[in-house]
Specification:
This protein has 140 residues and is an alpha+beta fold. It contains one helix and eight strands; from the N terminus they run αββββββββ. It has two domains: 38 residues; 89 residues, Immunoglobulin-like, CATH 2.60.40. The longest helix is centred in the N-terminal third of the chain and has 33 residues.
């Protein structure tokens, strides 16, 4: 039996080229596309799109039970912004009245009170007051 060296070399080159095309199409090109299409991190705060909500807005007025208020710092597309200074005012017993926004732009505040009543809290981002407020209530 005679082996056709030219045909064998051609077949080997076809296998190598096919493997190269397979590798490019299944690994290299998708990696390049993912790298090129990754969104840049959000950096410009939109005060009007950011929001403040009460995670828990009713608690006992015993100085122990806590209300929770969440402030979400976002850009104009709704994407959270990390590392912005967020403040909450309106009651003396806010555990930490200034925090940095974390993952997804979230800054959570815990509030206790010995005084009964309903309190309106104002949030601010980097010193700029937010247009929306939230009310928390403490009862005995």
């Amino acid at each position: 039996m005679k082996i056709d060296k030219k045909g064998l070399i051609t077949f080997g080159l076809i296998i190598v080229v096919a493997g190269g095309v397979f590798g490019l199409s299944n690994y290299v090109v998708p990696q390049i596309l993912v790298t090129m299409t990754k969104a840049a991190p959000a950096t410009k705060v939109s005060i009007n799109d950011s929001y403040v909500i009460g995670g828990k807005i009713l608690a006992k007025a015993d100085g122990v039970d806590k209300c929770r208020v969440d402030v979400f710092v976002v850009d104009s597309t709704g994407k959270g912004i990390t590392g912005k200074r967020v403040s909450l005012e309106g009651l003396e017993s806010i555990v930490e009245s200034v925090k940095m926004s974390g993952d997804n732009g979230l800054a959570s505040f815990e509030i206790t009170s010995l005084k009964e009543g309903q309190f309106e809290l104002n949030a601010g981002i980097e010193g700029v007051p937010m247009p929306r407020t939230v009310k928390v209530t403490f009862r005995n």
